[in-house]
Write a structure and sequence with these properties.
It contains 10 helices and 21 strands. With about 325 residues, the chain is of the alpha+beta class. It has 2 domains: about 180 residues, Uridine Diphospho-n-acetylenolpyruvylglucosamine Reductase, domain 3 (2-Layer Sandwich), CATH 3.30.465; about 120 residues, no CATH class. Strands 17-14-16-15-19-21 form a 6-stranded mixed beta sheet. Strands 7-8-12-10-11 form a 5-stranded antiparallel beta sheet. A 4-stranded mixed beta sheet has the order 3-4-6-5. The radius of gyration is 24 Å and the shape is globular. The termini are far apart.
């Protein structure tokens, strides 16, 4: 007997019991549950998924992606959900990396760290701090999110973007194949730099499961300063360069400048500037909204910030001066 109906994501079991035809439908989520833990999906403003899965090792990540590929199911990889990008995502499966959250290795000699993609940046920073090291970013989220978004920060003006800080990675492709690419040191010169293609791709080309990143000796002391934007050119061309500089523009016309210096305490005590200084790391204002990336030439970030603020009728714009990139938000604008 041919029923003529066989959806790709539903298994059909046909039984003849007591002369009656009984159809038993098994949803694809039951098959998925045999591979990994499955829970209810998301229903929040930034993502909606039918189920969420929680892999505990790289093999389970590969199994989930392979299963999704075979059954034509969409997948949304995420971890902490602190930095959603773009419109609301709708997917069948939410791939949650919260259990792949370990710092695996820290090398003070070769200045690198390896960590799983679900590792929060706060946990990584705490581990690095014990060894007098740091990863220059103010991103609030997971390692995988930071790399997948190529998340620029105020520190990108001096140290570069994540694309420059990530030395290599373990990756899982969309059809469930695990790939190692790159190295834990800067002297890697063989093979294709596959991991660089994934940085900034937001998970469209594959997912990170482990990352190797360049780290730096932590300065003895940090000093932050705020002041008038008229000090910007003097600050950038002064004898003591700041580690990061940003300028805040508000729709009402108010402008302010912020900067962070790092180095030996004896040297920073001699800073001669009109900025109002305080010890510690000052961060730019926290912004929320729908992020749209805009490119800028280095040195023109402030000008682009003003234009974007006016064109998009935003409330606020922050320019990360010297990075050459911009990311305006619909209500508040982040220009970098």
């Amino acid at each position: 007997m041919y029923l003529g109906w066989s959806p790709s994501n539903i298994a059909q079991t046909v039984c003849l019991l007591c002369g009656f035809l009984v159809l038993v439908f098994v949803d694809w989520s039951d098959d998925l549950a045999r591979l990994v833990e499955v829970r209810d999906g998301l229903n929040v403003s930034w993502a909606k998924t039918e189920v969420n899965v929680y892999p505990e090792d790289y093999g389970q990540v590969a199994s989930v992606l392979g299963f999704a590929s075979e059954n034509n199911l969409s997948v949304y990889p995420f971890c902490m959900g602190t930095n959603p990008v773009g419109p609301t995502v709708k997917a069948k499966i939410g791939l949650v990396f919260s259990r792949l959250n370990s710092v695996l290795e820290v090398s003070s000699e070769n200045l690198y760290v390896s960590a799983q993609s679900g590792c929060p940046l706060t946990s990584l920073s705490a581990e690095l701090d014990k060894r007098g090291l740091y990863l220059p970013t103010d991103y609030a989220g997971s390692m995988g999110g930071w790399a997948s978004a190529n998340a620029v920060s105020a520190y990108s003006t001096w140290y570069g973007m994540p694309r420059e800080l990530v030395l290599g990675a373990k990756i899982c492709t969309g059809d469930g194949v695990l790939v190692s690419s790159g190295s834990k040191t800067t002297k890697f010169s063989s093979g294709y730099k596959v991991w660089k293609s994934l940085i900034g791709s937001l998970g469209w080309l594959g997912v990170f499961v482990e990352l190797y990143c360049r780290v730096y000796p932590k300065p003895e002391v940090f000093v932050s300063g705020v002041g008038d934007t008229s000090l910007l050119n003097t600050l950038l061309r002064g004898a003591l360069r700041p580690l990061c500089v940003w300028v805040v523009f508000e729709a009402g016309g108010r402008e302010a400048l912020g900067a962070v210096f790092g180095g030996y305490a004896s040297a920073l005590k001699r800073i001669n500037t009109s900025l109002r200084l305080s010890e510690g790391i000052l961060k730019p204002p926290t912004l929320e909204g729908n992020i749209v990336t805009v490119a800028s030439k280095k040195g023109l970030e402030s000008e682009y910030a003003k234009r974007a603020l006016s064109a998009l009728k935003g409330d606020m714009a922050i320019a990360y001066v010297g990075s050459g990139g911009c990311a305006p938000l619909r209500k508040r604008l982040l220009i970098c």
